[in-house]
Each structure stands twice: as structure tokens, then as C-alpha cells.
Fold each of these.
Amino acid sequence: MQAVVLAAGEGTRIRPLSAELPKPMLPVADRPLVAHTVDAAVDAGADEIVLVIGYEAETVRDYFGDEYRGVPVSYAVQTEQAGTAHAVAAAKDHIDGPFAVLNGDNLYDPAAIDRLFANCPAVGAVEVAEPRNYGVLSTEDGVVDDITEKPTEPPTNLANAGAYAFPERAREWLEVPESERGEHEITDVLATVLDRFAVTPIALDRWLDVGRPWELLAANEWKLADLDRRIDGRVSDDAHLEGDVVVEDGATVKSGTVIEGPVLIRSGATVGPNASVRGATLIGGDASVGHAVEIENSVLSRGTSVSHLSYVGDSVLGRNVNVGAGTTVANRRHDGAIVELSVKGERVPTGRREFGVVAGDGAKTGINSSLLPGLKLAAGATTRPGEVVERDR
Ligand code: TTP
């Protein structure tokens, strides 16, 4: 089966992390987010991967090339992000048989992708507590017979997980009219398939739609929890590594450092001396965590540097961010309330009582900056030495 993976969107809700990198290419453990989906498709036996690309398309192409893990990869360019059906339609000329459609910004339970492919036509379904916020699937006699977007009275608690195995004929049904929100939506293609085929619901034990910055943190928490301890880099004799810690070849952990897994330290990174790293944390390639720095439950992307005597907790730092010495990130409010973050100009609850900051590529904090919880620093933004930063910049 061919697997069409949608990776053309910019990820406006995850800004500033997507300022120069499309959301599907943001780091989740040891690879880009979309690579987890492509890996699941390859493991399920996909005989071709068709990547739909658009925003910052070259970064996706450069990563996967023409062949990935022995499976041919082709690309369809969607010039305008006019919706998920529009994205699949851009790949129409590549499709010549039954085909799967997967979102390049979703993490799926890999075993479910196996079952999805084996049971074509099929759709991924995930049990949710609040089905009103999702496309909800109705079933009869073990077959999906309808999908309703954000229903006020949901017929089931089965949400559409954005994973489809379509019969070849669906190729003819990709041109759908604009929906109320002005997009050409894949769910309208699914509705036609449901009318004409018996579509099997495939239960996903786990699923995560990465739309906003804290969901990238959650994606890392998920995939870092799967790490198995492996020490290939240089670790000082008096560093203390507990639990599932991976130190890749070419990474260095210096004297006096304490690391409590799951923590992944990628090649070229340096940690310590006397640093403390814990929680689900990714220290990206060539990143640097200096003397007496504490990092907790955070993502540090490639090339990011946190200088001596700083604290970073529950935060996502883009590439080549420079955290000046003595910077402190606050990751809890005094009132213990859920931390909010601005998403497209609106304050949105992250669902977390502990959440720090999100910094775009190249942001720099001055020495001894203090950053309040739920802040965003734009790509290239700076803070002054000693500044207490209370608002996004
Ligand atoms: P969304 O998350 O709806 O869109 P997005 O990724 O651009 O993010 P945001 O809403 O924050 O701007 O998209 C779901 C998936 O479909 C995702 O993998 C991107 C992909 N997609 C396309 O490839 N083309 C499109 O036109 C759209 C709307 C989405």
C-alpha cells in the first residue's frame, strides 16, 4: 500500500518554533516528528511513501531523499495550504492502488498503523473523553457508517484520528467542495468512502495531534519514554547517570553531572560540568548545557546553548537559542493555576501546571534574565541583562 503523508502545513499554532522549520520537521526524540509517522508506515509494509510538502518543503525533501529505509519516497508539492483533501489531491498522480493517508504532525500508536493497512478500507479511531471537540465516528455492526464534525450530541466517543486506508476508487473522490471553514477537507472524502464501502474502525491505544508548543513537549515525553539506556559518547567517571539515558556517540557528559532519564543527549552535545538534567529531556545535536545548569523536562533543539548557573524547566527551545548565564525560567504560577500560552493571539490553557517558555530559533536571553511561565520569545528575540520578562516578545 502507498502511504500519503501530509506535511505541507506551516504550523501557525506552533509558532515561533515553525518560523523556519515546518512543524513536521520539529524534533521528537531522535528524529523529526514526521519521521515517526513515516517509520510507522514503513514498518506496516508501505511500498511507497508519498510526502505532500509545501511550507519550507526543502527541509523535508533533504531529510528523506528518494529512498528511506529501502522504501521509495516521492514528493507532491501543494502550493497553497487549502485543506487536507486538497493536499491529498496534490498527490493524485502518484496514487495507483489502495492508499493510506496519515498526518505528518500526528503521533500514532505504530501497531495500529499495521492494523489499518491490513484492514483497508479502514479509519483510525481513538476514544476521547470530550468527543465534542473532534470529528466523531458512528459505528454499526463493527463498521463506521458516519462522521460528524464537532457534534453537540456525539453518537460515540470515537474521535477520528486522521489515519485512513482508502480503496483505490477514493482517488476519484478527492475533489471536494470547501467546508464551512473554507478548506477542502479529507473528512468529506471519508464520508463518500463510508457511503460506498464497509470501513473498519481501527482502535488506537495512543494518539497525539501536535498542534501547539506544549503538544511538542508531550510528543517528546511519549517518545523519550521509549528510550533504552545506551552510552556511546564520552561520560566522565564521576558523572551519575540513572535510568534510561542515551548519550550518543560524539556527545560529552562532564564531571559532576547528574542525569535522570529518560534523557537523550544527541551527538555533538556537551553537558556539564556539574549540570543536572532530568525529566523527559532532549538535548539536541551540538547543544551545550554549561556549568551548574539545571534542565528539567524540556526540549533543546540543535545548537542551543544554556550558559552556567541557569535553570530551564518544561520549556521548548528552538535551534541556536542562547540562554545567557544565570537565566531562570519560572515554570509554575504562584496560584498553582494551569499555565496559559498565546496561540495566534489568544491565551490558551496548556493543561499543565508546570510550563515554562517557548523560544524561537536564535532567541537570546541576557544574563540573569527571569522569564515568567507561559512566555513566547520570537525567533531572534532578545532580553536585556537582569530583565524580568513578563510578556511575549
Ligand atoms: P493542521 O494541523 O490542520 O494545519 P497545520 O499543520 O498547517 O497547522 P496550523 O493549523 O497550526 O497552521 O493540518 C493537519 C495535517 O495536514 C498536518 O500534517 C499538515 C497537513 N496539511 C497539509 O498538508 N495541507 C493543508 O492544506 C493543510 C490544511 C494541512
Amino acid sequence: FSVLRWTWRLTYLTTLAGLGWVGYGIWIMRNPEDQPEPDPSKKTLVILGTGWGAVSLLKKLDTENYNVVVVSPRNYFLFTPLLPSCTTGTIEHRSIMEPIRNFLRHKKAAVKFYEAEATKIDYEKRIVYINDESEIKGDISSTEVPFDMLVVGVGAENATFGIPGVREHGLFLKEVGDAQRIRTRIMDCCETATFKDQDPEEIKRLLHMVVVGGGPTGVEFAGELQDFFNSDLKKWIPDITENFQVTLVEALPNVLPMFSKQLIDYTEKTFKEETITIRTKTMVKNVTDKYIEAESTGPDGKKILERIPYGLLVWATGNALRPVVKDLMMQIPAQKDSRRGLAVNEYLVVKGTENVWAVGDCAVANYAPTAQVAAQEGAFLARLFNQMAKTNEIEKQLAHLSEAQEKAPNKEARDQVFTDIKDLQKRLRRVKRMGPFEYSHQGSLAYIGSEKAVADISWLSGNFATGGTLTYFFWRSAYLSMCFSTRNRILVGLDWIKSKIFGRDVSRE
Ligand code: FAD
Ligand code: NAI
């Protein structure tokens, strides 16, 4: 009895302590401490963007060392790996957004945030020109932000390769607004296809969902869309069952070129079972409001130009440079041979500059443009800047001590200062010993629909390829753990439960 009683008491006390700890955590989260205002006497560090690279830098940066200014048209961080799930309502978009204001309010020293787009960076004058692109504009909607140090983390825009009609008729999948537009368009196509007296050919066209680009974005979206149809659409709108079709169009001979051959075959086989059509070796050349024109290469090498009618067209053919990045590259002679973005050195300094760094999709450091790379680059820069601040501080102390040594009244005092200088110099050497950026590849993961995922994982200096339902659970737990905050994790988890129990919402917003 006494053992039972003690076990009960211990459980009670542990639960109480746990609840207290969670409560304290929530209280701290809701009531951030006052922050010292930015100190203009310190160097101004301007960070462009609130994506993977910039936010990862801000997370680890000791903001009290600099006068930090963040500029981005997006006042939130977006967890892009789960964005394809927002196109069908498996996850609600707000669950993968984290307000940048909340995050910045928890930094030790205040950070200025301007919701604006950087339109031009004048490297010589050390000025960023910014524009308020939002709907509501004040009397002043464009101004300048001077910088001592600048980090460019503006990501990339959607590549269209100048193909006519893409921007007018296609939908992209990069931002929250894109996912919302796709969700609305899917439902619009389904409702319009069931309109009274609709022509059978037109029904077929409206229910033909075409995805261009067989990279991970295209593949994940096609998988999510087929899931939506299988689990929900055909139940609630049985009239569309016969004609609903998802087609993935890819110019190369196979989809997911960055994955191993075994996983490419597995993905293609899974798509076939899910009745998703894959059209490889098919290059889209023109887009109109109702069909795409694509050139496909037959087994005999002959090229055929065909028209593919569509109701929904999602364009996922990779990244292109943002105009502000292109313009900066033109100002720096050392960037003239770089095509895919800002060429950086091993410390992520933009080549040809001293005080400009670049992270993520806008930087070319010989790694794929992924969140994984951007996050590691951002974290590296935070360490670098924290160390630079420490170095400055130690150097100031050393200068002060050298003066003190000269003014020391006797040998004993001089010896004491000499010892202090030696200690500081040792610390300085330690602090300065920071190696260059090294990317550590953790692997690639992609959802391919019908509760299956593929993973190429780097493990114990080897590679390990796997696909299927177990990998899907791994995919889910990996992305859940990688979400920005506990709040995001809870919301995403609840969304998954909600869509499993009640199904996805088929109302059109
Ligand atoms: P972003 O995260 O795109 O952030 C750029 C920031 O700059 C944004 O805040 C933007 O608003 C801001 N900005 C834009 N223009 C300006 C301007 N002119 N001035 C100031 N700020 C500006 N990668 C993975 O590793 N794993 C995945 O599973 C994965 N899934 C993905 C799914 C989708 C649908 C997409 C689209 C991408 C996915 N990626 C994934 C790739 C990953 O999202 C990018 O590589 C990553 O976002 C790059 O980070 P970044 O910081 O360079 O840019
Ligand atoms: P991508 O560049 O990886 O793939 C684009 C595909 O479109 C290419 O295979 C290309 O051959 C094809 N294409 C280009 N033009 C075409 C045309 N006219 N007609 C037909 N096909 C055409 O682009 P994606 O998928 O948008 O990914 C961008 C980056 O984000 C990549 O680095 C990717 O690794 C990363 N990402 C990673 C994810 C993951 O790890 N799960 C998910 C989504 C993106």
C-alpha cells in the first residue's frame, strides 16, 4: 500500500510540475519581456526576406550585437514542405505560417521589421530601396534603408522560360496565395463540369488537371490532388468520377531526377496504380486558356506537337532569379559569369563584395535550392555574425588594455595587464577559428500520394533509399518535428486528424 501511495504521489507531483512548466512556457510565449531598442551606434545589419534562410539566421542571431532590420513583403515564415497539402485542404494554410512579429518580439534586443519589397540594392552607396506593395499604403510607401552589412535571402521566383501564356493561364505553387488559388480552382472546375447541359468534351476538359514539371513540387501536388479525388471528391460529387484525370507533364525522360533510380521507378509505378498519367519527354511550348501545346518525343525519336486540353494547369518547373537579385549582380563585375544566382564564397560572402552575404535559393554555393540548404546557410551566418561581434568586443578590450599597460605605474601592474592581454589574445584566436560553411545533407523526402512517400536518406556515410507507407509515417513525423513552432506542430497535427475524420472541405471559397 505504501508503495502504491508513493507511486500515486510521485505521479501527481510530476503531472503538476509538467502542467506548471507548460503553463509557464505559454505565459512566457504570450508575454514577451521588454526589449532594448536597436542601438544606432552599432553596425546596421539588414536582412532581406523571411524565408528559410533569413529566419534560420534570425533564430540563432544575438540581436543585441547589431542594429537589425528585416525587410520582406511577407510578415510570416512559411513552412513550404507542407504547402502542397494546403492545395486540397489536408492542411489549412495558417497552420504552416508563423507570424514574424511574434518571433521577433522574443529576441533579446528589438529588431525593426518593414513589410516591403526590396526593389533595388545600391551596393556602392550601401542602401536598399524598399516599396510597400500591400493594398493599404500610407503617404510614404517607398523609402531607403542604409546598411553596414546586408544579407540577401529573397529566394527565387517561378521559372516560366518565357513560354507564352504561362503567367496568364497557369497557377504556381510557391506561396500561400498560390495554394489558395489552386484549391478554389479545383472546386470551380468540378462545379462547372457538373453545370446543367454541359457538353461531354467540355466536361472532360474541365476535369483534366494538368501539372507541368516532374520535380518534387509537381509530384507532391499530383499525389495530393489524386488523394483528394479518391478520398473526398468522388464521394461528394459522384458525377465527376468518370472524367476526373490528373496528368503530370515532364520534359526529361523521368520524374524526380534528384532521387535514386529505384525511387523514380517506385514513384512512376505508384502513379500508374493511382491512375495518374505521366507524360515524360514532353516539353510544353505554349499555353492558352483552354489547352497547352506540348512537343513529345516518341520511341523512334520523332517529335510530335499536340494539344492537351485542361481545366486546371499547375506550373512547377523550378526557380528563376528575382529582379532585385539580377540588378545587384549587374552592379558587381565579379558576378558577371554567374547565371543562376549570387555567386558566394565559402563564407557565403557575395563574390566581389565585402559586406554582402547571400543565403538560400538566391545564392549559388553549388547545392540544390532546398529548404535544408537555406536553413543550414542561415544558421552558419548567425554563428559567423555572433563571432564577428565577439571578435570586435575582444579587440576593443585589447586596445583598452594596451593603453592601460603603457600607463601602468609599476612592473607588477604591467605584468598583470600583460597576463590579461595574453588571455584575451588566446580567446581571440579561439573565436576567430571559424571554418567555412559545410553543408550536411540529411537526405531527400517526397510525398507521392495514397499514403506513400519516398526517401533518399544519408546515414552513417552511406545512402539509404526507401519508399512506401512506413516511409510516409517517417515523412509525416519528420515534417511535424521540423515545423517552426509548437503551435504549428499542434495545428498541423489537428488538421491531419480533422481531414481523416471529417474528410477535406469541398466548399469553394
Ligand atoms: P524563401 O523561403 O522562398 O524565402 C524568400 C523570402 O524573401 C520570402 O519571405 C519572400 O517574401 C521574401 N522576398 C521575396 N522578394 C523579396 C524582395 N524583393 N525583398 C525582400 N524580401 C523578398 N525544400 C526542402 O528542402 N524540402 C522540401 O520538402 C521542400 N518542399 C517544397 C515545397 C514547395 C511547394 C516549394 C515551393 C518548395 C519546397 N522546398 C523544399 C524548397 C524550399 O522551400 C526552398 O528551397 C526554400 O524556401 C528557400 O529558402 P529561401 O530563404 O532562399 O527562400
Ligand atoms: P525542379 O527544378 O526540381 O523541377 C522542375 C521540372 O520541370 C524539371 O524536371 C524540368 O525538366 C521540368 N520542366 C521544365 N520546363 C518544362 C517544360 N516546358 N515542360 C515540361 N517540363 C518542364 O522544380 P521544383 O519541383 O519546383 O523544385 C524546386 C526546388 O525545390 C528543387 O531544388 C527541389 O529539390 C526543391 N523542392 C524539394 C522538395 C522536397 O524535397 N520534397 C519539394 C519541392 C521542392
